[in-house]
Input
Amino acid sequence: MRDLTYLLEGLRCSTCQSDNTLWLDLEPGLVECRECGQGALIVPDDGEEQ
Output
């Protein structure tokens, strides 16, 4: 099984302001801060080319 979780380097959490703590989990489309737990779902753009 492939790991589909990636560290989003160079980005800062808008809630706790911590650098390099955001992780993207591609399967559910979730970005989560490992410091404070804040999360957001990603909604794919239907017109985006793959």
Observations:
- The beta strands are 5-7, 22-25, 30-33, 39-41.
- Residues 7 and 24 are 6 Å apart (CA to CA).
- The mean pLDDT is 89.
- The two ends are 22 Å apart (CA to CA).
